[in-house]
Design a protein that fits this description.
614 residues, two-stranded antiparallel ribbon
């Protein structure tokens, strides 16, 4: 039966090999057909080239005829014709040689293909024969193994008979051993009965001891419960004392986020009644490109790590946590954009100023950054010419930028004052972060960056999710409808970019409290590109590696942490500013318009920038 199965398997293998050979032959025929088609195509192309050559010859003949008309003598005409005939003979000879070479190459290629196909077929047949021989050898080996297994089976039967005899002998011995064991077991039963009596007496004694132990455990549990209540009271006392005393920087940041910033939840319609309109950006500096501000978060983290070294957890110098909690309980609902602005200045920027004021005294070696003076915010940009001056020299504050000279320098004459008033109508950011150097006089305040505050509906998380890097700022792709509300976001970005360009600042900030956008302009390479980085306070980033309840990570992600690290980053990144170079770059930048369409809203007040729609 096994041999028949082997024979069937071998036949099946031979049939499969024959099918494979037929399949290879079909593939070879297909390849031959493809080659024939290629040869026909080549011949067709050759005929076309000949026709083109004939046309070229006809054109040359016409050209020569026109040219020969200008020849004045018959001798010159004959000489030119003789030259032309010689050239034509050479070209005809070269064409015939090329055709002959092409035919020879085609014949050689056909011959080579036929040889390859024959070799392939011979190779496949040889492999088939080798596999058939190998299958016969395997069948012979299998038959030999069957014979060997039959011999082993006979030997095993003999061993089974011998083992059966040994088993019978062992059973006889086991019967005699069983009788002896019964006798021994009866003796052991008597001994066990005596032992059971002794064990019963011992169990009674153990029950009495267990009862005493249960009573002791109940007393111990009552003691542990009393100790637990005492520990709970002690922890509550420690927590109350901790809230009553000054806090560390990390606890202060997290508590500000929990009690203050997290309560900022303005509805998109709460700041607007009637129609929502973006600021009409007319004749403003407009970026051409919008790219991601890569590396911003890494630089902020580096600054934050240095801050943690200057203000370790054991250093308690910030506002008491109970005070922050009480302030948070008094926060009312924000019903206007002005209320939003007051909320951010009062609860975020003021908290950040605590760090700036304590950093100068705590960081004596300037490990975080060199503090040239007091960092503060100017809320009324129309007073720029009185509060912000130009630096005395390029080395006083590295990298510090001031507002444009048109808005700063005192210019006599009524015409110049009129120009200044027109500039004030355009340059009116919500705030200017400045570093105020000690002393008096002009040039003490060095501008770090402008800040623009927008209501929640202007820069929403949904709009941020739709925002992508682009080389055509504010322009929808052809055939695509603009996303609802994107004009509001583009208008806000264009407005802060205009403020950054007018003030020659490298950095800027656009915020709604719930969303913060950190902005950057590279004046040295491409001032037409606006770089942005988005931070959502209180929410971890997608690539964060910290634990979910990590106090340090929560402090860094807080609104105050983001403000502080970005401001210090701008101070730390300062370099000597070539003012003339930036003014030259600004002079080459183009201005443009961004007209937004109005959308319906339920409630709220008109946006703060409506006065710029002039």
């Amino acid at each position: 039966m096994d041999q028949q199965n082997d024979n069937n398997a071998q036949r099946q293998g031979v049939l499969e090999l024959e099918q494979r050979i037929k399949e290879l032959e079909r593939q070879i025929e297909k390849k031959d057909e493809v080659l024939r088609r290629e040869i026909k195509t080549g011949l067709h192309q050759e005929s076309k080239s000949r026709e083109l050559l004939d046309e070229e010859r006809a054109r040359r003949i016409q050209t020569d005829q026109r040219f020969s008309a200008h020849i004045q003598t018959t001798e010159q005409l004959d000489w030119e014709r003789w030259n032309w005939n010689e050239k034509m003979k050479e070209e005809m000879e070269e064409s015939r040689n090329a055709q002959a070479r092409e035919k020879v190459l085609l014949q050689e290629r056909d011959e080579a293909l036929r040889q390859v196909l024959v070799q392939k077929k011979d190779h496949d047949l040889k492999q088939c024969q080798e596999r058939t021989a190998w299958a016969e050898k395997q069948r012979d080996k299998a038959n030999n193994k069957v014979r060997e297994m039959q011999q082993e089976k006979d030997e095993a039967n003999n061993k089974v008979r011998e083992m059966q005899q040994e088993k019978d002998e062992a059973l006889r011995k086991a019967v005699s051993f069983e009788k002896k064991r019964d006798k021994v077991l009866r003796q052991r039963g008597d001994d066990l009965e005596q032992k059971n009596k002794i064990l019963k007496r011992l169990n009674d004694e153990l029950k009495e001891r267990d009862e005493l132990l249960r009573q002791a455990d109940s007393l111990r549990e009552g003691k542990d419960e009393a100790l637990g209540q005492a520990d709970s009271l002690r922890k509550e006392k420690d927590e109350a004392l901790r809230q009553l005393q000054s806090s560390s920087m990390l606890e202060f940041f997290v508590q500000c986020q929990t009690s203050l910033s997290s309560k900022l939840a303005s509805e998109p319609d709460s700041c607007q009644r009637g129609s929502i309109q973006a600021t009409k950006m007319t004749d403003r500096f407009k970026p051409e490109k919008l790219h991601r501000f890569h590396g911003c978060e890494q630089e902020q983290r580096a600054v934050f790590d240095e801050l943690c070294k200057v203000f370790p957890p054991e250093l308690l110098v910030f506002t008491r946590l109970i005070t922050v909690i009480e302030i948070g309980e008094m926060i009312e609902t924000i019903a206007s954009e002005k209320g939003l602005e007051m909320f951010l200045w009062a609860h975020v920027e003021r908290s950040a100023r605590q760090v700036f004021s304590k950093l100068a005294s705590a960081d004596k070696k300037s490990t975080v950054c060199k503090m040239y003076g007091e960092i503060t915010v100017i809320h009324y940009a129309r007073n720029l010419d009185e509060s912000i001056g130009m630096t005395g020299s390029a080395g006083e504050v590295p990298g510090a930028a001031t507002t444009s000279t048109q808005a700063q320098d005192p210019v006599p004459g009524s015409a110049d004052r009129k120009t200044k008033v027109e500039k004030d109508k355009v340059f009116k950011p919500d705030g200017l972060y400045v570093c105020t150097k000690p002393g008096k006089g002009r040039g003490r305040n060095i501008l770090l960056f402008p800040v623009e505050i927008k209501p929640g509906y202007a820069v929403t998380r949904q709009l941020i999710a739709l925002l992508k890097a682009t080389d055509t700022f504010g322009t929808a792709k052809l055939g695509q409808a603009p996303q609802p509300g994107m004009n509001l976001l583009y208008g806000a970005l264009m407005q802060i970019y205009d403020y950054m360009v007018r003030s020659l600042s490298s950095y800027g900030m656009l915020t709604t409290g719930e969303v913060i956008m950190f902005l950057y302009i590279d004046w040295s390479s491409d001032a037409k590109t606006l770089y942005y980085h988005v931070a959502i306070p209180g929410e971890p980033a997608d690539d964060t590696t910290g634990a979910p309840n990590d106090l340090k990570e929560a402090a860094f992600r807080s609104a105050v942490g983001q403000y502080v690290t970005f401001v210090l980053m701008t101070m730390k990144k300062c370099r000597d500013m070539d003012r003339k170079q930036r003014e030259g770059v600004r002079a080459k930048l183009t201005k443009g318009d961004l007209l937004a369409t109005a959308t319906k809203a339920k409630t709220g007040t008109q946006t703060k920038d409506s006065d710029t729609n002039q």
